[in-house]
Every structure is written in C-alpha cells, then in structure tokens.
Amino acid sequence: MTGSRREANGRRRPYGARSAPYGFLAPAVVLFALFFALPIGYALWLSLHKVDVQGLGLGKNARTEVWAGVENYTAALTDSELGHGALRVLGYGAIVVPVMLGLALLFALLLDTERVRARAFSRLTIFLPYAVPGVIAALLWGFLYLPDVSPFHHVLGRMGLPRPDLLDGGPLFLALANIAVWGGTGFNMIVIYTSLRSIPAEVYEAAKLDGATPLQIALRIKIPMVVPSLVLTFFFSVIATLQVFSEPTTLKPLTNGISTTWSPLMKVYNDAFVAGNVYAASATAVVLAAATFALSFALLRTSNSRAKQQGSR
C-alpha cells in the first residue's frame, strides 16, 4: 500500500470519495450543536449574568443585563429549598432504584427459565408500562390514589379497613416511587433479559451435568454474568431519579403535600417560568448537571475498579 488515500492501482481517490464520511457526519454534528451544545453554552452564559434594575424598572434601559460572575452559583449552593429538594430526591431514589432493579432482575430470571409459559406475552406485559408517557402514568395513578375516586379506597371502606392517604406525609414517597417502579421496571428487565439470552447454552449444560439446581445456576452463573447490564441499568436509574420532574409536577394539583420546589428540577422550572429569573435557574441547572456528572463518574470509577480487582483474582 502506498498511502491511505490511494486506491489499489496507485491513483488518488476523487475528492468526493474523501469527503463522503464528513457528509454523513454533518447532519448528526449539526443536530448535536443546535440541540445539545448550543443550549448548554447558552445556559452557562446566562448563569454568569443577571439583570440590573434601575429605579422602578420601567422605561427604556431600566433593565440591563450585567455580569454577575459566580453570584448565581453562590445563591444556588446556599439555597435551603434546593438542599431540601435534593434530600427528598435522595430519599425517593433510595426506594426506587433498589426496588426497580430487584424486580427487573427477578422478572428477567423468571423469563429465562425453561419451564416458563407464554414468554413473549409475559415479556410484553412487563415492558408495556414503559411505553406509557410519564405524565399519563402519573395521572392514572394519581386518580387511583385519591380517596374520593379510587376503587381501592372504596373496596377498603366496604371491608371496614383503614384507607390511607397516599398523597400526604410519608406515604407520598411510596406513591411517587410506585409510579417510577411501575414504569421503569420493564425497560431494565429487557436489558437484563437480553444479556441473559446471550449466555452460551453450553455453560448451563455444564452446570447441570455438575448437579447444579436452577437456583444455584441463577445465583452462581446468571447473576454474575449479567453484572455489566446491572451496572448499566443502575446508572440509568440513578440519572433518571436525579431528574425526576413529571411525576411530582403532575400530582401537585391533587395534593397539598407537594410544593413547587419538591425536586431540584421543579425548583429550576419555578425559578425560570414562575419567578421569571432565568439566570438563577440556569445556575441551578448547571449545578445539578455537574452534580449528576460527578456522581455518575464516581460510580463508574468504583465499578471499573471493582471489575479490575475481580479480574486480577
């Protein structure tokens, strides 16, 4: 070969052939720049500015955009409402992530057994809630939670049993977590189940010849071999938990237990579109993005280090 840009007969490739890869990449690059890089850059720019109001803020040039430096970031990091919202989301995630991944792993293992019937129908049934938009799912469950219209409350009242209010106090976390678990378990199950189906059948046959029971095969072969899929679904679940917005926002009109700043993203929305302070909202959004990135990076480093330690053994 005489060079990467020459054909087999030694002639240079035409210019169109050399530029073809860039032409295929151009649409993706343009979309990435317009809908990802540009909004992030604009949010960073807004977070470093503020509005300077002169007098009553009326008239021409009464409101001017000036440099604020880290003032918006300082206000965001010292905001008690943002801290309380972060704590609520952490408590919410402590319920959602382990329950959702545990159910996804359990369903995937059950579907991967030899004796299961109607595997395709069961897989579709478990995955179907994931296809329901989050707002619609929150509305459906919200009306099932309301004591006056819920059929479950009606049945409990007929049986003389107490009817708990799931939209107030501590049960509110369970009500919100139930919506997330119901909608996200199917997606995580598909990821884990696909990983299980990729395991060679010879591995199971060798384990059966050694006298391993189905439970031992699941605990000692299947689960260890799908750990990468579990790590992947764990990262997805953590990121989705930190970005919870639609469920509490949709349920807010149905209860007084959810404030406008219940989650960090709800506070960003409230600052930007209710209070009209897009500069403070941009700074808060940047802080949340940086915290999400730092947490994901730390979890990924921890997972990689443990995988290397196990590989060295």
Plain-language structure description:
With 313 residues, this protein is mainly alpha-helical. Helix 5 packs across helix 7 (171-197). The chain has a two-stranded antiparallel ribbon. The protein is 69% helix and 3% strand.
Give the biggest sheet: 2 strands, antiparallel
Which secondary-structure class do the elements indicate?
Answer: mainly alpha
Give the CA-CA distance, first to last residue: 44 Å
Give the mean pLDDT: 87
Low-confidence stretches: 1-8
What is the helix/strand order? HEEHHHHHHHHHHHH
Rg, please? 26 Å
How are the strands of the largest sheet arranged? 1-2
| Overall geometric form | globular
Number of helices: 13
Count of strand segments? 2
Portion of residues within helices: 55-70%
Give the DSSP E fraction (strand runs of 2 or more residues): under 5%
Key descriptive features of the protein:
single chain, 313 residues, mainly alpha, two-stranded antiparallel ribbon, 13 helices, 2 strands, 69% helix, globular, disordered N terminus
In short:
69% of the residues lie in helices and 3% in strands. The chain has helices at residues 15-47, 71-77, 80-111, 119-127, 134-145, 151-158, 171-197, 201-209, 214-225, 227-242, 246-251, 264-274, 278-312, and strands at residues 49-53, 63-67.
